[in-house]
Amino acid sequence: MPRAAGRSALGGGIPRLSRAAAPAILLAAAFAVALAPAARAQVFEELPPQLEARARALYAGVMCPQCAGQTLDQSSAPIADAMRSVIRTQLLAGAEDGAIIAALVESYGEAILASPPARGFSLLAWLVPPIALLLGAAAVAVALRNMRARGPDAQPDTAAAPQAFETQTDAETRDLPFDLVDLELGADAPAAKE
Fold first, then answer.
1. What is the domain range of residue 75?
2. Number of separate domains in the chain
3. How far, in Å, CA of 18 to CA of 8, rounded?
4. Are residues 72 and 96 in the same domain?
5. Are residues 76 and 97 in the same domain?
6. What contacts 16, CB < 8 A, 6 or more positions away?
7. Which residues of 148-168 are buried (b: 16+ CB within 10 A; e: fewer)?
8. Is 20 helix (H, G, I), strand (E, B) or coil?
9. If you compute the radius of gyration of the chain from its CA atoms, what whole number of angstroms results?
10. Among the residues of 3-153, which ranges form H helices?
11. pLDDT digits (tens, 9 = 90+) for 22-52
């Protein structure tokens, strides 16, 4: 039975591509893949230098709600692109930084802020590190002062040493089976017991 023109030998009904059409289709596919990131890219209006600096500061102070631990400045998530666009639009409209931050906090909660507010329970995040640093510095200073007061030739206090670490007497060690250890280590002869 003769094969129909333009049909594959497998009979699946899939038309064969001509040799001239295959490179054109591959070129179109490569072009589409190359342009895919550009189609997703956010187009921003150029901001004046002062507004651009304010926008960058806001991006650095606001966390991306989708990305763990990334600010808007660091994130490439679509929601971060949208939030950057909203911030730029509000800056162009003349909004103040505080009003933009307040609107974001109202929408997403205080977790959207890169640094916690200095009030309430979050105040501990601001107070504990410097207090811990001061206490550590004071402890080091006291330790250094005590070391200098003793002098370089001072002996450690042996009265406080535990009694469990005293050396054993010959009478205590005489009854222990060291003969096998001596044989393994190559000692000449085991010590004679008295």
1. 49-112
2. 2
3. 12
4. yes
5. yes
6. 6, 7, 8
7. eeeeeeeeeeeeeeeeeeeee
8. coil
9. 39
10. 21-40, 49-61, 78-92, 97-108, 123-150
11. 666 766 666 666 666 555 555 556 778 888 8
**Single-letter code of the amino acid located at 41:** A
pTM assigned to the model: 0.45
Apex CA 181: angle with CA 178 and CA 185, to 5°?
140
Q: At what angle do helices 97-108 and 78-92 cross, to 10 degrees?
A: 140
Q: What is the residue-wise DSSP string for 75-98? A: --SHHHHHHHHHHHHHHHTT--HH
Residues 6+ apart with CB under 8 A from 99: 90
Rounded to whole angstroms, the Cα distance separating 169 from 18 reads 101
Q: Give CA torsion, residues 22, 27, 33, 39, to 10 deg.
A: -130
